[in-house]
Specification:
Number of strands: 12
Radius of gyration: 22 Å
CATH topology of the largest domain: D-Maltodextrin-Binding Protein, domain 2
Largest sheet: 6 strands, mixed
Number of helices: 19
Number of domains: 2
């Protein structure tokens, strides 16, 4: 990319400014949904004005699975074309060897970050990436429709199922044949792993792989949770939910055609936007649990900025990562995109609380979010996740019941683990 441009133009990638500082031509690879790209571009414009560097964005597809595949190709080839990567919270253990250890470069600011955010990006004492923003999903619901049909905000998955059915049936009887009860991320990709581990863990079924690396996912509580989710498809959820990613679910909910939605924080700012049909008729709450005595589970999400070991502009790239995660940029991101910050102080900012009340209220959820087992399974996480979402997707598609598919999953996970992860 950069090298090709330079060969074609004959222009070097560095320019000596009048100040004696060398201006670099940087590239950041960045997958996004919602207004992420718009906000990033504005922040990069300010970075360029302040430093003299230039930054090009290389956009990625929405699917994190597709992003990861492309990243591995670039990194395996030791490509110098990308300086800064936007990394999913789960990727640090798998990609650590390809990134600069940021520990000595951020020693003056590291204590300002949410501890869990830093811990998630630390592998064997190496800070692989600097946390950009956190994520934890919410249950979005139509306040007007629950009131219309005298339904309470559900606290269990069974209550959600029943309330969604009541409202959906009522709206369809009145002529809105496009109304659905519940939309979520049901496609066979990482998003389904996030959804399904919430259903299972909040129902007492444990984790995909336990923190100590043990495999106990083949159990009746996990099977019951997945079977319940399978009953939603073609019932309170459209058949097409089996292909839904984040933006698909948001599109249905924001257009006014769903009672409930499971989605990440970014969707809040968009659903509350001036042009949103549901702007004044929705709210959010924590995800349901499996029942009495059980707790809600919300998957830890978030994105982080790693500097490639193969970058020829590492000093400027580190400067860029620090800039994009500073207080002002995290504050802007929280207000405009409703992305939870990784700096503790932003949660206490009065302007953030005024313009996005969702942010400070979600701090406890973020602090207690459920991590995926990337630390336990190390470099095999992607294979583990793919095996898990396949078992769940098969069940939801009618290809075997949950007990059968979890038994097969258990065998596959044991094969992947071998003597150890």
């Amino acid at each position: 990319m950069k090298h090709f441009r330079n060969l074609m133009t004959g222009i070097a990638t560095t320019t000596l400014l009048a100040t004696g500082v060398i201006a670099e031509d940087l590239t950041i690879v960045h997958g996004s949904v919602g207004r992420d790209q718009e906000v990033l571009r504005g922040q990069l414009d300010r970075f360029e004005a302040e430093t003299g560097h230039t930054v090009t964005i290389v956009s990625m597809p929405e699917s994190t699975t597709d992003q990861f595949g492309q990243y591995r190709l670039w990194l395996s080839a030791q490509s110098s074309d990308i300086d800064v990567y936007r990394l999913d919270v789960i990727w640090a253990p798998q990609l650590a060897s390809h990134f600069v250890d940021l520990t000595p470069h951020v020693a003056d600011i590291v204590d300002d970050f949410v501890p869990a955010a830093i811990e998630s990006q630390t592998v064997d004492g190496k800070l692989v990436a600097l946390p950009m923003f956190l994520g934890a999903p919410a249950l979005y619901y139509r306040t007007d429709l629950l009131e219309k049909y005298d339904q309470e905000v559900p606290t269990t998955w069974q209550e959600l199922t029943e309330a969604a059915q009541v409202v959906m049936d009522g709206e369809r009887a009145e002529g809105n044949t496009d109304m659905w009860g519940f939309v979520f991320q049901g496609a066979a990709y990482e998003g389904l792993t996030c959804n399904a581990q919430e259903w299972i863990n909040s129902s007492g079924g444990g984790r995909i792989v336990e923190l100590d690396g043990s495999i106990n996912i083949n159990n009746p509580k996990a099977a019951a949770a997945i079977d319940l989710a399978a009953s939603w498809v073609g019932g309170i959820a459209p058949e097409g939910v089996l292909n839904y990613k984040e933006e698909d679910a948001r599109g249905v909910f924001q257009s006014g055609n769903a009672v409930f939605m499971r989605n990440w924080n970014y969707a809040y700012a968009l659903a509350a936007g001036e042009d949103s049909p549901v702007r004044d008729s929705f709210a959010v709450t924590t995800l349901p649990s499996g029942g009495e005595g059980m707790s809600s589970s919300a998957t830890l999400g978030g994105w982080n900025l790693g500097v490639s070991r193969y970058s020829e502009n590492q000093e400027a790239a580190i400067e860029l990562a620090r800039f994009l995660t500073n207080y002002e940029n995290q504050k802007e991101r929280a207000i405009v995109t409703s992305r939870p910050p990784t700096l503790n102080a932003v949660y206490e900012d009065a302007e953030v609380a005024e313009q996005q009340e969702f942010i400070p209220l979600w701090k406890p959820v973020v602090d207690n979010a459920l991590p995926r087992p990337s630390a336990a399974t190390l470099r095999k996480y992607n294979e583990v996740s793919a095996a898990f979402w396949t078992a769940v997707h098969n069940t939801m598609s009618g290809d075997g019941d949950a007990a059968t598919n979890l038994s097969r999953l258990e065998n596959e996970l044991k094969r992947l683990r071998g003597p150890r992860w």
